[in-house]
Amino acid sequence: TGRWQKLFIYIYMHVCVYRSVSTQKRTCPLLSVQPVRGLLDEKFQIAVTNLPPNQKVTLHSLHQSDDKDFWEAFGHYVSDEHGSVTGFKDESLGGTYDGTEPMGLLWSMRPIPGSRHGLRIRKRDIFRPMEVRISVYSGHLSQGFSQQTPLATSVTERWYVAPGVKRVNIREKEIRGTLFLPPGSGPYPGVLDLWGVGGDFVEYRSALLASHGFASMALEYLTPEDLSLEDTDASYFEKAYQILNNHPMVKKDHLAVLGLSLGSAITLSMASYSKVIKPQCCVCISGSHLMPVEKSLSELFELMKSHADKLCVNEDNQVILRNLILSLPCQSTKVDVGRIKCPLLLVNGDDDQTLPAVESAEDMAMMMEKAGNRHLLEILMYPDAGHLIEPPYSPHFRATNYKLEWTKEKIVMLWGGQTKPHAYAQEDAWKKILAFLWQHLSAPVSTVTSF
């Protein structure tokens, strides 16, 4: 009858719609990034499912830095017979990275086409995460991502600071810095964190150290408006060390000094000559003992300014600083590392174009051998890594804009390194730096607070 025919048609149409929706749900690609939140040095896992078998796809990452510049990375993949792509086991066949590289979407990031030249990512607000938008696109794309519609998208947050880490401003005895304290009641082993001549005060490494159980103080010694370079001599660093050592949340006499670039030169000098700074261990990243810092920083910069004619420039008009350092008349004033009495870890890249890290490490080893303290020295030398060895998965910067402190001239500084080996150096060195600090400061092996 007509009534039964209408009922049959009604049921049939609903079954068809249900099947259509179910089919769409089954075939719509799904993108998963786990964990959604994590520390910067924590690996994530990317998985794409519900793709057709053997489909070419592109995984793409996009990040807007604190300076409002956009950075991207991408890898080309082919789905397996199940229609899946898994970032931690499948190979990228091309893009900004290749091979099985679970974190390639971070460390191979570069400015998007049309960006300003000579850019560098530096996290300024460590209480805001590094947000990375990860998308999957059909086909193997190398450009024009903003004009394409992704098959699926997910956002992951990478943090420099774990939940519960406290930030304390240090403003005493003319010292300027920031102390990061791990969660809990303490006391914690301490790290005095010294960056180089980058033009900005950097806190993110100290925040990450605190996330691993260390009371880390990032010391401001170049940028304070109320501090002149004439005042920044050995006594300034000694006062900072005492403030950290005497803090009620810091385990007294369980301190390390960690320096990068100029910060390493200061670390070596203080460990060799200071009667106040007596660290249990030191870590020097991309440093040199050939930079005489026994007086004030203003005198060091004046010395470098007087040798500015030794600066070299490559075919891309990028400045190579290492030759200037090698030309300094410091054979009689170089840091006497034979006086060092604590374990010392050197972390260097053999393509460092900023400081003579290779030559310095070799000379330091000979000096310490002669002085009888070579057993205290451990050297990590990474092939094809450059000067800026930062926390793991940070993008590699071979050359960036820079302002010479001693001339105020704006240049493009050549840091050196090749992207993939430099990324390996950052990941491996960070693990070994943390292990070195844990070993000599008696810190717990795992104190990271879960997100």
TrEMBL record:
Domain of life according to the entry: Eukaryota
Organism: Cyprinus carpio carpio
Protein name listed in UniProt: Acyl-CoA thioesterase 16
Active-site residues, record numbering mapped to chain: 261, 352, 387
Similarity comment: Belongs to the C/M/P thioester hydrolase family.
GO biological process: acyl-CoA metabolic process; fatty acid metabolic process
UniProt domain Acyl-CoA thioester hydrolase/bile acid-CoA amino acid N-acetyltransferase: residue ranges: 41-172
All residue ranges annotated as the BAAT/Acyl-CoA thioester hydrolase C-terminal domain in the record: 233-442
A GO molecular-function annotation: fatty acyl-CoA hydrolase activity
InterPro entries (UniProt xref): AB_hydrolase_fold, Acyl-CoA_thioEstase_long-chain, BAAT_C, Thio_Ohase/aa_AcTrfase, Thio_Ohase/BAAT_N
